[in-house]
Amino acid sequence: MNGAGRPRPQGGIDLLAWIFMRVSGVVLLFMVLVHLAIMHIINNIEVINYHFVAVRFATPFWRTYDVVMLWLAFIHGLNGVRVMIDDYVGSQGWRVFSLASLYVLGFVFLALGSLVILTFNPAHPF
Amino acid sequence: MGKISKYITYRGGEGQWSWLLHRITGIGVFIFLLTHILDTAMIGWGPTAYNDVMAVFRHPLFRVGEVVLAGAVLYHALNGVRIIIIDFWPESTMVQKKLFYAVVIAFLLIFVPAAIYMLAWVVK
C-alpha cells in the first residue's frame, strides 16, 4: 500500500511529474498564502485597481514573484487535470482529444499570463 | 447508486473524502486561475479596461466567491501537506485518519477568522 497520494511511479516522466507536484505544492503553499494575505486580507478588491497594479509591478521583485507563482501553479494545475483525464476518460480517442485540448489551452493561457506580467508598461498599453 | 458514484468513490472513509475534496478544490482553483489570467490581462489594455473588470469583482456575489476560493486554496494546501507526509513517511499511514482531522482543525482555525474578516463589508 502506497501513501495518500498517487502511488509513486517507477520512473520516467511520470516520476518527474509526481515529484514536481510535491515540490511545487510546498513552494506554492507559501507563495499562494502570502499572495492571498496581501491581496485579499491586507488589501482587498475595494483598493485594487490599475494604479495599485502599476505600483506593484514597478517593483521587479513582485513581477518575478508573480511569474514564478503563475508557472508553478499553472503547471501544477495542468498536471492535475492531466491525471484526472487519465483517470476518467476511458476511450482512447477522447483521451487524445482532451489531452491535446488541455495542452493547447494551457500553452495559450500560460503564454498570455507571462506576457501580461512581463511586458506590462503603463506608458505603452497594447 | 448512479454512474457518478464510480467517479467519486474508491475505498470509503476519511481517505476517500479527503481525496475527493482535493480533486474538487483543485479543479475549482485551476478554473479560477484561467479566469484570473484573463482578468489580469486587462492591465495590458490600460486603466479603463482593467478598472471595469475590477468593478465586476466588487459585486457581492464575487466577494462571497472570493471567500469560497480562499477556502478551496487553503484546504488544498493543508491536505497537500497531509499527502506529502504520508507519501514520504509511510509509518504515518497508521495515523492517516488523525492526520485528516488535523487538516480539518487547522483549516477551521485559519479559515473561520479569515472568512469573518473578509466578509466584514456585509455589516458595514
Looking at this protein, list some descriptive labels.
heterodimer; A: 126 residues; mainly alpha; 3 helical TM bundles of succinate and fumarate reductases; 4 helices; B: 124 residues; elongated
Question: At the third CATH level, what is the topology name of chain A?
Answer: 3 helical TM bundles of succinate and fumarate reductases
The CATH C-level class name of chain B: Mainly Alpha
Low-confidence stretches of chain A: none
User: Helicity level of chain A, as a percent range?
Assistant: over 70%
Task: Briefly say what this structure is.
Chain A is mainly α and 126 residues long.
Describe the structure.
The complex is a heterodimer of chains A (126) and B (124). Chain A is mainly α and 126 residues long. Chain A has a single domain (12-119), classed as Up-down Bundle (3 helical TM bundles of succinate and fumarate reductases), CATH 1.20.1300. Chain A contains four helices and no strands. The radius of gyration of chain A is 18 Å and the shape is globular. The mean pLDDT of chain A is 93. Chain B is mainly alpha-helical and 124 residues long. Chain B has one domain (9-123): 3 helical TM bundles of succinate and fumarate reductases (Up-down Bundle). Chain B contains five helices and no strands. Chain B has helices at residues 4-8, 13-41, 47-57, 60-88, 96-118. Chain B is elongated. The N and C termini of chain B lie far apart (46 Å). Chains A and B meet through helix 1, helix 2, helix 3 and helix 4 of A and helix 2, helix 3, helix 4 and helix 5 of B.
